[in-house]
Amino acid sequence: MSRKRWRFWAWPWELKQAGVLGINARNLNYIAHLNPRKLYARVDDKARTKLICHEHEIAVPRTYALISRYGDIAHFGALMGNRQQFVIKPACGAGGRGIMVVAANTREGFVLANGTVLSAADIEHHLASILSGLFSLSGHPDKAIIEARVMPHVAFSEIAVGGTADIRIVICQHVPIAAMIRLPTAESRGRANLHQGAIGVGIDIATGRTTTAVHHNRQITQHPDTLSPVSGLLIPHWQQVLHIAGRLSHALQLGYVGVDIVLDANYGPMVLEANARPGLNIQIANNQGLLKANSHALAVPELKILPV
Amino acid sequence: MNKQNKRTVVTVLLLCVIATGIMVIRHLSSDTAGDADDHVLWQLRYTVKVLARDAQRVYVSLPDDAHSAMIQREAFFRADLAMDIQRNADTGSRSAVLLANGNGQWATWIGEFDIDPRLNTKSHPAITQPLKPAMRQRYLAAKSKTQVGSMSVNKALAQIPADQLPVARVQQIFEYCWLNISDRAEGHDDAADALTHGFANKVGRARAMVAMCRTAGFPSRLVTGFVLDLPGNIHPRTWVEVYLDGTWVSYDPTSGQTRFMNQTYLPVRVDGVEMVRGAEPGTWRVSYELNRLERDVSPNQPIAQLPVILDLTRLPSGMRGILAVLLLLPLGALVTAVFRNLIGLMTFGTFTPALLALSFLYSDPVTGMVVFVLVMFVGMVTRGLLEYLKLLMVPRLGVLLTLVVICLVLAISVLDDLGLTPSANAVILPMVIMTMLIERFYVCHDEDGLLTACKLLGGTLLVAACCFMLLAWKSLGLAFVHAPEMLLYVAGALLLIGRYAGYRLAELFRFRDMLSPDASLGS
Predict the structure, then answer these.
(1) Chain A positions in Cβ-Cβ contact with residue B515 (cut-off 8 Å)
(2) In chain A, what are the domains?
(3) Which of A85, A187, B29, B346 is 20 to 30 A (C-alpha) from B447?
(4) Nearest CB to A28; choose among B501, B515, B523
(5) SS3 content of chain B, % helix, strand, coil (to 5)
(6) Do B501 and A97 touch (CB under 8 A)?
């Protein structure tokens, strides 16, 4: 058993040798070069991403309603009818903010996935907050998407606590270069965002098998809530996941993009959203720097753009 | 090196060359101007001691930019005294208001003014200024010791022929006072007494002239100030100004100088005699000291080589103070960039810290901090309560803003009641920024937890503190006023940071586990 010497920091040349991509380098050398700003709206607005997915026949959760006017909020009850489960999310939200998962529609009210019971008025207030831009990236007025709730795949029942696991694939020049699966924990309150306490587990692109895992930037081997191992699991439908991610990257025409995919128990892999500024934690989850993988992707002959 | 990096480096080099070139020219031109040493730089120092009693306010008249002089620098030193600077709307004179805290001890206040006695073209007396009717009324009216229209004054005025030009008549009034009232230190300072008895002190003689001028229908006033000619302990001098042909013309009954006063006269208080007032006699003492300063740059001649718009030292002192802060703001941006892009410290908002620092600069930092904490606390509690009402975003922010304003107003009132604050300046905080800070802190606390929210707030305050120290660095600000081209260096530094693709300091910590890919923990 080889145990790493405990250290408080790493020297820059050590990180460089490990191929770690820093935020400044990501912004200057990748995002600024490969992602034209006018195309950002395609991913910053999830409603547009969904439309693009529809055009290219890429599976997404079914949209029940798109609310963009305050007047429509009053019709919310009629729109939902007797649908039992749905998800409300801001079209331009960031970091999982403003997402509300309704698990049941009972006489007492709407029961959320975390057990909270809300009245129709509470939901309407939440919709109004979304429209006013409270959760949007820039604070601009926003739209609210109401869509089908994804049914968690049984493969992750032991390691996704209180929510749905999602798979993040970073695609550079349309080549998948890194992948991880994000597992919600009790701490992250069912959300799959690493900064909120979710776990990131690296995935070997070639085999679809999980490798190393990270929680709060530190490496772990088992889920902190269920103590189930998180490494060595085979992701179901892996080839299909890669295929969807690649097609979306082509459809978006973004050269450096993170695609979030969920596995639905009934419908298989579906695109949740894409991100033009994918985070760097995926490196820690995989215990491998993106620079090495990126330079491989950039070596594709017809796409020589970058000095790295 | 890629294309962008090359372009950036070339731009930075270009900026540096331009800035250095301007600085060299500035240096050379100030050297040549420095040879002309017919001008001196004076330092006037007020020392005021106040017996601190309950809420005792003492007013001290301060020198200001005048046509004959420019205040290059001013500094105040105070112990146990709160200070505010006010300007009289009618006369334009500045006063420092000193507020003692009432511990019964003597408190000392020192004001230092570096005065450049060059002609200030902006306020030259030859420029005609119309006198407003209310002001004309004021400068024709009788006062307790200036008995306009009294018997003795009328009697004296009767000896001066009325059928001549105003200038000649005023000159004759001046000469009448000069010849018929002898100057005795023990004499009265009262106009009527001076004219009746034929002797008075210097102020009495000046008042006699004012009384006669006003009776004859010429608006006139006393001006008190200093004559800057010999260093040492000096005393205020009072002279007379008469409004003739659209300008104020000076007459000094002490020296006999009339009409064309030389540059050594520095007016301080208009329409008044006492430099320090507002307290009972015996509860304050004052002394004035004049020193000659070594002049490092002598801007007395127009700088030939540099366009005059690049010489900010020619601007009035108040303007220069504001420009100094303005010129330092880009440094605030530089600090923010260093913290965010080189160190990797996250803050609420991009320029929120710099703007917070700016507001703290205008307030007294301790009072500012107390008010800041108070507003944050009340804001957070209210934001929590507002959550129950389920309001839309803009009205909710509006309610928070209203509350922040109420807090600030109450804080000013309470602090004033406790005798702790000199002015509303002390609590001027950017209220909209405070409101957004409260909202962001609350939402972040709700979404990402208290720890993340506190980290962000801590980062914001740390960057704000650094910006504050930089903005409060007076000599740095003055250096920028002297050589504003240094901003090009700042811009260059920002450009370089803008192309920095290396690791942030925080990433050395964040990615520390990734050093040896084959050895993961516990495997």
Answers:
(1) 4, 7, 10, 14-15, 18
(2) 20-57+152-299 (3.30.470.20), 63-147 (3.30.1490)
(3) A85
(4) B501
(5) 50, 20, 30
(6) no
Q: Please say whether the beta carbons of A178 and A169 come within 8 A.
A: yes
Strand order in the sheet with B94-100: B81-87, B94-100, B57-62, B276-277
| Predicted ipTM of the assembly | 0.78
| Chain A nearest-CA residue for B4 | A28
Q: What burial letters (b/e) apply to B223-238, b meaning 16+ CB within 10 Å?
A: bbbbbbeeeeebebbb
Contact A106, A60 (CB under 8 A): no
Residue type, B509: F
For chain A, the maximum distance between any two Cα atoms, rounded to a whole number of angstroms, is 63
User: Which of B390, B448, B504 is the closest to A24 by Cβ?
Assistant: B504
pTM (two decimals): 0.66
Measured CA to CA, the distance from residue B384 to residue A165 in angstroms comes to: 31
Cα–Cα distance for residue pair B306/B29, rounded to 1 Å: 8
Residue written as token pair 């900026």: B15
Handedness of CA A301, A303, A306, B4 (dihedral sign): positive
Range in B3-17, B200-214, B287-301 with the lowest mean pLDDT: B287-301
Pick the more confident residue, B446 or A209: A209
Mean pLDDT score of chain B: 80
Round to whole Å and give the CA distance between A263 and A203: 15
- Largest CA-CA distance found in chain B, in angstroms, rounded: 115
The 3-state secondary structure of B170-227 reads HHHHHHHHHHHCEECCCCCCCHHHHHHHCEECHHHHHHHHHHHHHHCCCCEEEEEEEE
Q: What angle do CA B5, A25, B498 make, to 5 degrees?
A: 50
Q: Read off the pLDDT band of B39 (50, 70, 90).
A: low
